[in-house]
Amino acid sequence: AGQAPVLTTVVKPRDAVQWALFYLPVLSPRPGQLSQGQEWQASVDQSTEAWAQGDLGAALEALDGISDQAIRDARLFAFRASLLLAAGEVEGATKDLERALLLSPDDSDALALKSIIAVANNDLKAASGAARRAVSLDPDSATARIAESYARQARFDLEGARESLEKAVQLDPDDALAWARLAEVRSSLGQGGEALAAAEKAVALQPNLSRTQTVLGFAYLTRVQTRQAQEAFENAIELDGDDPLPRLGQGLARIREGDLDGGLEDLEVAVSLDPGEALVRSYLGKGYFEAKRTGLDEREYGVAQQADPNDPTPWFYQAITQQTTNRPVEALDSIQEAIERNDNRWVYR
Asked: pTM of the entire structure?
């Protein structure tokens, strides 16, 4: 404060993208659930109310006055960790999870959040282990089941993920995140009508969460209801401008409606918000191809191939570009590379 910006370090974003990882939400506490009878219960209730209204900043600010030493409830540390993860503050979140597990080594919520961090870092063994332990410690926890679904999907087990989420909404029918997540997986399995119903249920429960609006947008998009999809994505972006997913969805919806320039702008913003995400790079490259911006499309495919060597998508789109530009031998090589990786696509659904 009070001085010009000072350069303190230089990083290569593709080599240091921890700041760009997006941690998926699993914890959905409601006012009055946490730390009843404690002297700072009012602050906690204020925080959960703000979170339910989609105001992450206010939710974190409401907890500022509570000292770590005063907290004797692991659930509060886990809740604060979930807010910090939503803000991308993984270091602070990790410390809070350590504090939670020190107070209560069997805290299911804390273990579920540790599983989500492991998924984001592609540590599938740790993710599965933490999720299984969270479920075993609290079989009635919807949060644990949601975390389990992410760990299962990361291992290409979509049916297992759906099973976890069907159990989650059975355990807690008022958990909006569980319904939103169920909508995602149903859509992944081609169950369009059931996916839309789950997404609408999620929005009805918590319309002010960016996640519920985003999932509703994709449910509409898979049914080619692009106008309704755009409206949901616009709501999600207004609620959380840092989330790349609604930008991706809005870009695809606009392109489908014939607005290629507007759609490309959205895809470029999505890439800027999550530069290490291979799939978004692939879609941006496809957008450049449609706009005949030669060279930019293949640049994005190359970045996507480096970012995730297992994803077939950039190889497939690159083959289309090469065939279109009369390079059939290169196109054949690329499509063969895509075919070799094709079974990996389940995780992206």
From this structure: 0.83
Residue 19 has pLDDT above 70, yes or no: no
> What residue type is 221 in one-letter code?
L
**Euclidean distance between CA atoms 33 and 81, whole angstroms:** 16
Residue 164, token pair as written in the block? 């976890």
pLDDT digits (tens, 9 = 90+) for 50-90: 887 778 888 888 888 787 777 778 888 888 898 888 887 88
Residue 197: count other Cβ atoms within 10 Å of its Cβ: 16
From CA 134, how far away is CA 137, in angstroms rounded? Answer: 5
What Cα–Cα distance (Å) separates residue 281 from each residue in 203, 256, 341?
29, 18, 17
> For the purposes of burial, counting CB atoms within 10 Å of the CB of 252, is it exposed (0-12), middle (13-18) or buried (19 or more)?
buried
Tens of pLDDT, residues 221-233 = 999 999 999 999 9
> ∠ CA 243-248-250 to the nearest 5 degrees?
105
Q: At 265, which helix (H) or strand (E)? A: helix 260-273
Distance CA 270, CA 255 (A): 15
The 3-state DSSP class for residue 257 equals coil
Return the closest-CA partner of residue 104 out of 60, 134, 66: 134
